[in-house]
Amino acid sequence: MSNRLADDRRRRDSRAQTEVAALRRENAQLRKALAGRPVVDQARGVLMAAGAQGAQHAWEVLVDTSQRTNTRLRLVAEMVVAGAVDGPVAPHIAAQLQRSLARHAVER
């Protein structure tokens, strides 16, 4: 009987450790997403000033550009913000931003 109780306890402990590890990973991912949020919001503002028709349209342009250039969304957002402050954005990102703006403007 005590072997059975010990086995049950080990299984519960193992499941709890697995769940804790999964929650820690999720927590780290959420913290990273929150840290990137301000620059993404700033980039959306820049794109709205450049012709995006609202926050949702600007978001779609960022996502589209990120996917089509295989560049992380946060990095695209950082380039957009830096381009608004410091000068030109990387040429391949700038070209895709223009195409994405035009594509999403037509879809609306």
Layout of helices and strands:
Elements: H1 2-49, H2 55-69, H3 73-86, H4 91-107
Helix content: over 70%
How much strand?
under 5%
* Tally of alpha and pi helices: 4
Shape: elongated
Class by alpha and beta content: mainly alpha
Walkthrough of the structure:
The chain is mainly α and 108 residues long. The chain is 87% helix and 0% strand. The protein has 4 helices and no strands. It has helices at residues 2-49, 55-69, 73-86, 91-107. Helix 2 crosses helix 3 (73-86). The longest helix is centred in the N-terminal third of the chain and has 48 residues, at 2-49. The N and C termini lie far apart (68 Å). The model has no long low-confidence stretch (mean pLDDT 85).
Write a compact overview of the structure shown.
The chain has 108 residues and is mainly alpha-helical.
For this entry, give a set of tags.
108 residues, mainly alpha, 4 helices, 0% strand
